[in-house]
Amino acid sequence: xxxxxxxxxxxxxxxxxxxxxxxxxxxxxxxxxxxxxxxxxxxxxxxxxxxxxxxxxxxxxxxxxxxxxxxxxxxxxxxxxxxxxxxxxxxxxxxxxxxxxxxxxxxxxxxxxxxxxxxxxxxxxxxxxxxxxxxxxxxxxxxxxxxxxxxxxxxxxxxxxxxxxxxxxxxxxxxxxxxxxxxxxxxxxxxxxxxxxxxxxxxxxxxxxxxxxxxxxxxxxxxxxxxxxxxxxxxxxxxxxxxxxxxxxxxxxxxxxxxxxxxxxxxxxxxxxxxxxxxxxxxxxxxxxxxxxxxxxxxxxxxxxxxxxxxxxxxxxxxxxxxxxxxxxxxxxxxxxxxxxxxxxxxxxxxxxxxxxxxxxxxxxxxxxxxxxxxxxxxxxxxxxxxxxxxxxxxxxxxxxxxxxxxxxxxxxxxxxxxxxxxxxxxxxxxxxxxxxxxxxxxxxxxxxxxxxxxxxxxxxxxxxxxxxxxxxxxxxxxxxxxxxxxxxxxxxxxxxxxxxxxxxxxxxxxxxxxxxxxxxxxxxxxxxxxxxxxxxxxxxxxxxxxxxxxxxxxxxxxxxxxxx
Amino acid sequence: xxxxxxxxxxxxxxxxxxxxxxxxxxxxxxxxxxxxxxxxxxxxxxxxxxxxxxxxxxxxxxxxxxxxxxxxxxxxxxxxxxxxxxxxxxxxxxxxxxxxxxxxxxxxxxxxxxxxxxxxxxxxxxxxxxxxxxxxxxxxxxxxxxxxxxxxxxxxxxxxxxxxxxxxxxxxxxxxxxxxxxxxxxxxxxxxxxxxxxxxxxxxxxxxxxxxxxxxxxxxxxxxxxxxxxxxxxxxxxxxxxxxxxxxxxxxxxxxxxxxxxxxxxxxxxxxxxxxxxxxxxxxxxxxxxxxxxxxxxxxxxxxxxxxxxxxxxxxxxxxxxxxxxxxxxxxxxxxxxxxxxxxxxxxxxxxxxxxxxxxxxxxxxxxxxx
Lengths: 565, 371
Prior knowledge:
Mean pLDDT of chain A: 95
Number of domains of chain B: 3
Largest interface: A-B, 25 and 27 residues
Radius of gyration of chain B: 20 Å
Number of strands of chain A: 30
Structural class of chain A: alpha/beta
Largest sheet of chain A: 5 strands, parallel
Number of helices of chain B: 16
Helix content of chain B: 40-55%
Number of strands of chain B: 8
Order of helices and strands of chain B: HHHHHHEHHEHHEHEHEHEHEHEH
Oligomer: heterodimer
Number of helices of chain A: 15
């Protein structure tokens, strides 16, 4: 008996059906060779939709299934699972994307319908030639690597360690704590940071499951989820760590205020950044809680928001999230330490979104801090004082505000060495330069690299509670493969025809996963099926046509092309 | 261009009204010109009465607003767009109208005769570009006709000859670059001048053009389309001559000099170092920087058609403030590299410092003293 194909055309509510005549598409499919049944349905991915497929597989003895619906990136795993439950190999599924690549991008109904019909015909052509593939599993090394010893890294490490797994915590600097260690008090509670941090650091240092490697950097990463081999060095010795999952918690850098020369940072001594203010206001030596400028207490202190954030002119379009609140905190501290000083905050919008934030903002203004709306354009000198040129946009009047001390609320930026880490792990970055999450809404701690997770500001600006939450989330995700003990390995891999292979090695040069190597004795190339991600670059590059990518063989692809033309 | 389309044409919807534009606008220091409010009004009012806004002619198109806008908008272009609406209806200040008329008829805004454009070069042995040189010296209208600025052209020619530069000028064929015409909203006239210039230049195998004025440089570099050759402002060219040792400056010029970064050279085209390099190469010259230098240089109010119209509040001039700043610095000379800065600052110096007080000179005039 030949192949028997079931074709299912999804309406996706109105997403597809409003543009594509799905019933017509199904009718066309019914007439294609080897198609035993063709249906259309409102939501193919729903329980009744899936039930329909499973029923047909049994009743019609289907051997292959084609689903014409959304992108496979959306529901390929869903439908593979469906047919598997009905007893078919999950790779006997082919999808035709008639949503993202058809109904969502075309307006003309007749043309969109015809295109959908062609896409379905191509999918059926390929389905005829699909072969079952074997899913394999590999063991997971029961250990995790956390890169970065700031609050995010420490929290993630502690959670994984407390769950009973071995954790390697690698930190570039000689000490733990990251940027948090540079802060004095945090908003909105104004708690001193030092004791909180000291406690966390002690826990990490004491933990039997945490192997703490400070002054150490990651210099090489090989392998895949469950089986990573990571090379680290402290510049005197090299070690290779074997881990199952990796949490990236490398943190952030602050915007370099010299990139906005109009503010005179680096030229005028009394223009400082928020972080420098933390130092100035800190109760530790040398200032010991005394804010002095030019040898005396400042009378007028002005804070400027959004320096290096929300600013296309310096290539940083995003909001850094923490500056409205840390400025409010710092303004409050100035009022506390210098009750006679006039404190002004020049803002564009005040973002006080978190728990206790708005109340704190009210409190800060209640203490007498003046908020004036207008982002300054430039600062110049007038004797020992500074003059800030801005406009009070609420009054509609240009402003020349004099100050003794100006504090620039510099924003959070990706670390200057983030490209290095990105390259080591093959992590993509978002347009803003931070590491990219797998899905902005639903998968904020995963990356597209399986087994690598993100925690903290390396993914985007956030404050301490959000960082801690994300670190705990990343830890939980990183523990799943460790708990399961085994991971599924990609079934779609390349296959080498040893008769045709000349061992030229071009394929190995193309492979970014280092999955290909020369078999010394046979003189042909071999594929490590566990490393292979099925991208097909080798198959395309082979001059002898000795490599085929399963599930995307030349015959299958040509069948699609034949159907389309 | 219609009033109603301003919001779309200049993407005014994207403005977050942060006020950085008005905050940095030099005119907001002395007039009621408020670019931020103008943007908002253009966005929310159905039929904005542009004609009633006399302050629209105050803008010197220094482009500080455009350069600093955090949302990447171009308020300067919006001002030019609004002016173009008024220009189409002839509703413009009479002095601007006169300058434009002169431009259209005589190729210069100073009502001078075409045939007299190259008179300044008489007796200097300056070749015409038709004789085949690779470097074209584009003189400009003010340096050609204004006696004060002619001295700059002559100094530049002196330096070129000392350095053995093979150059030529267009002579009476030279026509205004059109920069200020565009900036007062006369887009059509600008396009006509552009076409004329490109046609003229096309006849000569020029490889490099050097201009006296940053305004000409800016127009050719950033606004003209279809140039076959490179363009430089003279400070870039002369700085390189000095680097290559072709222009030895041996005579001492013992003066305390400060430098005015022209808006069209400095903040708009980021040419900050070359002028300073030239000044520092002059023996005996002490260079003292304005506090408001480089990106924060104070506009002289010469651009954007302001050489043809006083604007509102003529009593206070930014040039006067600048002269006072120079005097506070203890400077004897304000050096500059733009004919408009030269003229406005010198005017201010005579008023504030008197005839024997602070001097205003072009960089090339100081170079000529050192040759």
